[in-house]
């Protein structure tokens, strides 16, 4: 019974506690909160879905970007590999091209020195002038005898007169110069066509070179483009002259390059002579603030010295002396009262070491020194060795050899053509260089007097080949076959050959003018020679065959 009553009471209490109206405020909002929760859950679900879509889009974009970067990296890598392969092929092609060029130069240089007796090689040349005929032997002989041979006596008399006056002028120059401060002038030497007996065109002009040296205690230190110093291609054939003290190394004492400190003293140079004022170097005819000899300063000094010397001795002569060219140090002209005049060039030069190679400041009447890099660059002249080589070879040739005659005829024809069509880049020095090459290439018997016509053809063909290839090498520079009797400096024999036509490679207008002048000379050759030739009987000339080039 009590247990049953207890159960009934417990049931009633439980019913009362769980009745909905027992807690009206708390239980009344339950349905509303549920709807809000559901709504928020839906919104949250929607936002999560949108966020998921955004993240998926970003992941897709990142994957696309990554793929693009990987693709670009692959392209760059492939381009690098392709570039490397291309660079390898380019380098290989350049090496092959350089080897071919070197082989061609060696081959051509070898041919120039060794093709003396090969008529087939010479026959290949001159194809552009096939059909152009030289005058026959009788006309050539008459032309040479009447027009050229008669000038030899005039040249000899003029040389004698000019040399005597030049010696007197230089002696007076030494007397007016300060022996302790001015340059020391040596005896003059004759060079060029007048002293090699092949000048034919008037007016005759004697070329004399005058070596000079600095006063004591100074000396000249010469540097050439082939002495190991770095010279650009456009300065080949040039050199510089440094003025140094006799007790100083040319490269300078170490005291000029190193700070010795206050308590140390150079045993060679004191503080008095370790620094040279710029005025002292300018007095030594150097370029401003340098130790290098200035060609313009030398020209001014030499012109002033010659003027003073002439004023001292002018009373002894019955003629006037003046400068014919102001841009040349010693282009002088003697004017007689009768109206006649004689021109000659007295050019100061510097001797290279103990040889007969000289640094020359100016080339009057010549384009050899055109476009000089600067006034401290001096051109090297080998005129003394050229004269000696011709004299040496002449001793081995037959009597009355035709080598000088060939050069005289060709020089005359070229000069007449230039007077008709204007000057060209081709000079008499180029023509002489051609003769020097052929003198070395051909045997002595080929220069017999009766072979004048054949050798003249050879010179024209050789010159045509050089013009076509734009290559005419200096005879001495790079020529290992120079006779030992000349005592030629070995440094120039071992140097790279110097192309005298190199300036015309880039200057096409001058090159075209030079080639056109040469063509015109060939076409007008017969007319030019016949114009200055005594008429020969027609029956005599018709029996002689004209051999085409």
From TrEMBL:
Membrane topology term: Single-pass type I membrane protein
Pfam families, A to Z: Mab-21_C (PF20266)
Coiled-coil features, chain-numbered ranges: 38-72
Keyword line: Cell membrane, Coiled coil, Glycoprotein, Membrane, Nucleus, Signal, Transmembrane, Transmembrane helix
Signal peptide interval: 1-20
The UniProt record lists the keyword Membrane: yes
GO molecular function, a single term: protein kinase inhibitor activity
KW Signal (keyword) present: yes
InterPro entries assigned to the protein according to its UniProt record, in alphabetical order: ITPRIP-like (IPR026250), Mab-21_HhH/H2TH-like (IPR046906), MAB21L/cGLR (IPR024810)
Listed GO CC annotations: nuclear outer membrane; plasma membrane
Localisation: Cell membrane; Nucleus outer membrane
Residue ranges of domain Mab-21-like HhH/H2TH-like in the record: 404-477
Family: Belongs to the ITPRIP family.
Function of the molecule: Enhances Ca(2+)-mediated inhibition of inositol 1,4,5-triphosphate receptor (ITPR) Ca(2+) release.
The name this protein goes by in its record: Inositol 1,4,5-trisphosphate receptor-interacting protein
Species of provenance: Pheucticus melanocephalus
Gene from which this protein is expressed: Itprip
């Amino acid at each position: 019974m009590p247990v049953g009553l207890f159960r009934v009471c417990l049931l009633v209490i439980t019913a009362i506690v769980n009745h909905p109206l027992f807690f009206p405020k708390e239980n009344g909002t339950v349905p509303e909160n549920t709807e809000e929760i559901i709504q928020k859950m839906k919104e949250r679900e929607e936002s999560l879905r949108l966020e998921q879509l955004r993240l998926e889009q970003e992941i897709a974009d990142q994957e696309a970007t990554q793929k693009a970067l990987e693709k670009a990296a692959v392209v760059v890598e492939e381009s690098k590999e392709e570039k490397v392969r291309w660079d390898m092929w380019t380098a290989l092609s350049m090496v092959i091209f350089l080897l071919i060029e070197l082989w061609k130069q060696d081959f051509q240089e070898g041919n120039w020195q060794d093709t003396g007796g090969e008529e087939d090689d010479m026959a290949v040349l001159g194809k552009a002038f096939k059909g152009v005929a030289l005058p026959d032997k009788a006309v050539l002989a008459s032309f040479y005898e009447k027009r050229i041979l008669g000038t030899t006596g005039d040249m000899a008399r003029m040389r004698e007169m000019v040399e005597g006056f030049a010696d007197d002028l230089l002696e007076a120059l030494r007397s007016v110069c300060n022996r302790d401060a001015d340059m020391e002038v040596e005896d003059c030497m004759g060079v060029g066509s007048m002293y090699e007996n092949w000048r034919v065109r008037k007016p005759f002009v004697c070329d004399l070179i005058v070596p000079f040296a600095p006063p004591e205690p100074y000396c000249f230190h010469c540097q050439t483009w082939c002495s190991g110093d770095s010279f650009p291609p456009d300065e080949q054939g040039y050199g510089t002259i440094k003025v140094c003290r006799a007790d100083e190394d040319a490269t300078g004492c170490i005291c000029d390059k190193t700070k010795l400190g206050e308590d140390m003293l150079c045993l060679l140079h004191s503080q008095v002579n370790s620094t040279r004022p710029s005025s002292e170097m300018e007095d030594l005819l150097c370029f401003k603030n340098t130790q290098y000899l200035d060609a313009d300063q030398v020209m001014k000094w030499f012109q002033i010295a010659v003027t003073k010397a002439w004023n001292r001795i002018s009373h002894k002569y019955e003629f006037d002396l003046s400068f014919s060219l102001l841009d040349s140090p010693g282009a002088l002209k003697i004017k007689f009262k009768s109206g006649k005049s004689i021109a000659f060039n007295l050019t100061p030069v510097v001797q290279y070491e103990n040889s007969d190679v000289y640094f020359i400041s100016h080339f009057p009447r010549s384009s050899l020194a055109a476009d000089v890099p600067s006034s401290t660059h001096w051109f090297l002249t080998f005129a003394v060795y050229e004269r000696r080589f011709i004299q040496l070879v002449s001793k081995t040739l037959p009597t009355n050899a035709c080598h000088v005659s060939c050069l005289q005829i060709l020089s005359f024809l070229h000069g007449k053509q230039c007077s008709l069509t204007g000057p060209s880049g081709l000079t008499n020095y180029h023509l002489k260089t051609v003769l020097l090459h052929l003198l070395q290439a051909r045997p002595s018997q080929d220069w017999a007097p009766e072979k004048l016509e054949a050798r003249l053809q050879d010179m024209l063909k050789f010159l045509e080949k050089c013009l076509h290839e734009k290559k005419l090498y200096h005879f001495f520079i790079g020529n290992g076959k120079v006779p030992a009797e000349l005592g030629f400096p070995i440094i120039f024999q071992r140097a790279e050959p110097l192309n005298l036509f190199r300036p015309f490679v880039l200057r096409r207008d001058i090159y075209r003018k030079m080639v056109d002048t040469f063509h015109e000379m060939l076409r007008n050759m017969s007319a030019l020679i016949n114009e200055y030739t005594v008429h020969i009987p027609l029956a005599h000339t018709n029996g002689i065959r004209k051999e085409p080039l």
